[in-house]
Amino acid sequence: MHTFSNKKIHIFILLFSAMFLPFSVSASTAYIDTGHTDFFVGDTILFSVRVDSENKDINAVDGEVLLDHAARSVSLIDINTASSEFSLWPLKPLPSERNMSISFVGGSPGGFNSKDAVIFNIVLKLEKEGPITLTPSDFSVYLHDGKGTKDDVHAKQLAINVLPKKPDSQPVDDWNNVISNDKTPPEFIEAIIDRDPYIFDNQYFVSFFAVDKDAGVAYYEIKENDLDFVHAESPHLLQDQSLKSVVQIKAVDKAGNEIFVTPKLAPVPITGIPYKTYLVWVLVILVILAFIFWLLRFWTTTLKKNVQK
Description:
By secondary structure, the protein is an alpha+beta fold. It folds into two domains: 27-180, Immunoglobulin-like (Sandwich); 182-265, Sandwich (Immunoglobulin-like). Helices cover 21% and strands 42% of the residues. The chain has three helices and 20 strands.
């Protein structure tokens, strides 16, 4: 009898646990991976910071990655978002003063569902032997549900041990492989000339944005007519406010590939009448037209009756 009771309790616990199991495993997972299992002094390794959304649509992430290592045991070679699923960066991945952490805020307007979405990549050169730990910290993942719902997040750290340099062997260099294989220039997503009362006191500026899926965009340059190219960031105030100069924008990726584009003038928006006021006036005009139509019918009907009399 006692054994039977224990079995019933055991079955109840299993059923109860099964009820809550989906909730315990449905949290998004932030993790870091690399294509290597062995690490040696002198290697330059690419680490990918990823998120597994666990079959949910997500559209934003923020947090930081902690880099735990002995002083001067690594060099931070690059941080890039070249292969990232996130296209909007209110805060691009930014290292702390001593490269002990990297903070970021990224978004994807259309949302996505993925088991291994890249958030950004970290390239480290291993300078000394010893342990190194990369840890996702204070991660937030937001669901693509129109409400900004924050998902639960499970973080997995990556711990590696750097061994002494291998004698008579060439160090691994992931970053050089990326650079040397990148033959494709960036692609401009946007390049327009516009103005806005809240930007540069309503003066004309050029807004631009390019992407590069391999090494990533390194910098932009811009020129007006025969002036020299100068480094620029979007939005960039135009010197020639008459818009008579030919403007060129150049995007250069980290492999040195270039692309040039001439920005187009943005369409002139309807001004003077705010959108909501415009709709109100449309409704008012429709009501007036309906009244005129009714009035004409009324007069016509009345006139017919008088004629018949």
